[in-house]
Design a protein that fits this description.
Length: about 475
C-alpha cells in the first residue's frame, strides 16, 4: 500500500471513529444513560476496527450507520453491533471480540458450538441472548441460521452490560435477532416478527423485566424497521444501485477479487455463479418483515414487488455475464487452466494506465438484435452503460457481454446460459460448448483475442 493510500485509509478510519462515537453518545443521551467518554471511545474502537477488517467490502461502517438510521437509540445501538461478527467474511471471529465470546462458545472442528450447560458460567446477559434467539447449550451454530447475528448480539450484550439495564439490552438483542435474513413462516403461519414478539413476552415474564406489552410491541416494530433497512437495497428504485450492492458483496466471500486484478476466469465465474444461485433461490416474500400493520400492507407489498423486479433483473444480468465468462473460459482452456481474466480481456484501466482491451478489436455490429421487452431493454442498458459505479476489481459496464447480446439476442443468451451450466458441471466439454455457440461470434471474439495478443507483442518488441 502506497503512502497516499495509507493516509487515505487512516483518514477514513478516523472519520468512521468520529461518526461511530457521535452515534454512541447520542444513543446513550437519548436513553438517559451516563457513559464516560473513555468508555465510549473503547466501544467505538472495538466496532470500527472490526468493521474495517481486510475483507469487509459491503458490511462496513457505512452500512451500519445507514441501517441504524437516526430515529431511535435502540435501533442505532443494534445496528452498530449487528454485523461485528461475520465469520464467512472475516474467516474467523475478530480477536478483540473473542474476549466476550470465549466463555460461552467453543470451536469443534470447523464449527462453533455453544458450550455444554456444565461449562457455561452463570451469566444473565448470555441467558437472555440465548432465549431471544431460542438457542440452547451444546447447540452447533450454523451460518445460515443466525450464527453471526447470535454472536454479534452476544458481543453487544456483554459490551453494553456495564451501562444498560436488562430492559434495554433485551431490546437491542431483539433488533439484532430480527436481522437474521430470509426466514419463512412457521407451521402456525407466524412470521419471524410474530415469533419474536411471543418470545419477548415469555422472557419478560420469566425474568420479571419491567417492560409493558406496548413497549414490547414497539421493540418488535423497531426490529422490523431496522431489519428492513438492512436489506433495503433489494427494493431500490434503481436496479443499477441494487446491482452495485450485489457487486460489493462479491469480494466478501470471494477474497481473490478484492485486492487482485489478476483473478482467474474460473475464480470470477465461480463468484458470479454463487451470486446467481442465491438470486435463483431467494423469494422476494421472505426478504422484508411486517408486524401488526407495520409497515402498512401497501408499503410492504411495494417493497416485495420492487424486490421481485430487481431479483429478476439480477438473474438475467448475471446469467448473461455467466454465459460470456463461460465462453471465455472455454476458449482459455485451449492453452491453459489458470488464466487471469485480464489475459483475455485486457487490464482494468486506471487513471495512470490504459492498456489495450479485447473490445478494442471487436467490430461494430451492423444489425444488432433489439430487445423484445422492458426487462431485456433494462439489462442491455445495464450491460452497455453500466451500473452506477465501478468496483475496485471490475468495471461498471460489460462491453463483451453487450457485444454478445447485440450479436445473438437474449433468447439465445438464455439458451446458452443453460448450456454453460452443462459445461460447468462437465456434462459437456469446453469444445462441445464452443461448438454449440454462434460460429460468427466465436470467430470474431477469437480473432479479437489474437489481435489483443499481437498488440502486446508489438508493444513488447518496440525498439
Amino acid at each position: 500500500m502506497t503512502n497516499v493510500m495509507c493516509d487515505q485509509h487512516r483518514s477514513a478510519e478516523q472519520d468512521y471513529d468520529q461518526q461511530c462515537l457521535e452515534k454512541l453518545a447520542w444513543a446513550m443521551k437519548q436513553l438517559n444513560i451516563v457513559v464516560e467518554s473513555q468508555d465510549l471511545a473503547k466501544i467505538t474502537e472495538l466496532i470500527v476496527q472490526t468493521m474495517t477488517g481486510p475483507w469487509r467490502y459491503f458490511h462496513t461502517p457505512e452500512h451500519i450507520f445507514e441501517v441504524g438510521g437516526s430515529e431511535h437509540p435502540i435501533e442505532v445501538l443494534a445496528a452498530l453491533f449487528h454485523d461485528v461478527v461475520y465469520v464467512q467474511v472475516d474467516q474467523s471471529v475478530n480477536f478483540n471480540l473473542t474476549y466476550y465470546i470465549i466463555p460461552f462458545i467453543r470451536q469443534v472442528a470447523e464449527h462453533l458450538v455453544i458450550r455444554d450447560a456444565s461449562e457455561l458460567p452463570a451469566d444473565k446477559s448470555f441467558e437472555m441472548v440465548m432465549q431471544v434467539f431460542n438457542f440452547s447449550p451444546s447447540q452447533t451454530l450454523s451460518p445460515l441460521e443466525g450464527q453471526n447475528e447470535f454472536l454479534s448480539a452476544l458481543v453487544a450484550a456483554k459490551v453494553l452490560d456495564p451501562f444498560l439495564p436488562p430492559e434495554l439490552i433485551i431490546q437491542v438483542v431483539a433488533c439484532i435477532e430480527a436481522t437474521i435474513p430470509f426466514r419463512t413462516h412457521n407451521a402456525e403461519g407466524l412470521n419471524n416478527s410474530d415469533i419474536l414478539y411471543r418470545r419477548l413476552q415469555e422472557i419478560t415474564s420469566q425474568l420479571n423485566l419491567k417492560l409493558t406489552p406496548e413497549e414490547l410491541r414497539a421493540t418488535v416494530i423497531r426490529s422490523v424497521r431496522l431489519s428492513n433497512r438492512d436489506v433495503g437495497s433489494f427494493a431500490h428504485l434503481n436496479p443499477a444501485r441494487f446491482l452495485d450492492n450485489t457487486w460489493n458483496l462479491l469480494p466478501e466471500t470471494n477474497h481473490h477479487l478484492k485486492y487482485s486484478s489478476s483473478y482467474t476466469i474460473n475464480q470470477y465465474r465461480t463468484a458470479l455463479q454463487k451470486m446467481e444461485g442465491f438470486l435463483n433461490f431467494i423469494k422476494p416474500e421472505v426478504i422484508f418483515h411486517q408486524f401488526q400493520g407495520y409497515p402498512t400492507d401497501e408499503t410492504y407489498n411495494d417493497l416485495v414487488e420492487r424486490a421481485r423486479k430487481n431479483i429478476e433483473v439480477g438473474r438475467l444480468y448475471l446469467g448473461t455475464k455467466l454465459f460470456t465468462i463461460a465462453f471465455l473460459e472455454a476458449l482459455s482452456l485451449r492453452f491453459g487452466r489458470v488464466i487471469p481474466v485480464s489475459t483475455l480481456m485486457g487490464e482494468m484501466p486506471t487513471e495512470s494506465f490504459v492498456a489495450a482491451s479485447l473490445v478494442d478489436f471487436l467490430p461494430e455490429i451492423s444489425h444488432p438484435h433489439q430487445p423484445k421487452n422492458e426487462l431485456d431493454q433494462q439489462i442491455l442498458t445495464l450491460l452497455d452503460k453500466g451500473r452506477t459505479q465501478s468496483a475496485s476489481y471490475d468495471i461498471k459496464n460489460s462491453p463483451l457481454a453487450t457485444y454478445m447480446v447485440k450479436s445473438m439476442g437474449f433468447d439465445e443468451i438464455r439458451h446458452q446460459r443453460n448450456r454453460a451450466q452443462e459445461f460447468f458441471q462437465n456434462v459437456i466439454s469446453a469444445e462441445e460448448f464452443l461448438a454449440g455457440c454462434d460460429m460468427n461470434v466465436k470467430k470474431t471474439v477469437t480473432d479479437g483475442i489474437v489481435k489483443l495478443f499481437d498488440s502486446r507483442k508489438e508493444a513488447l518488441c518496440r525498439s
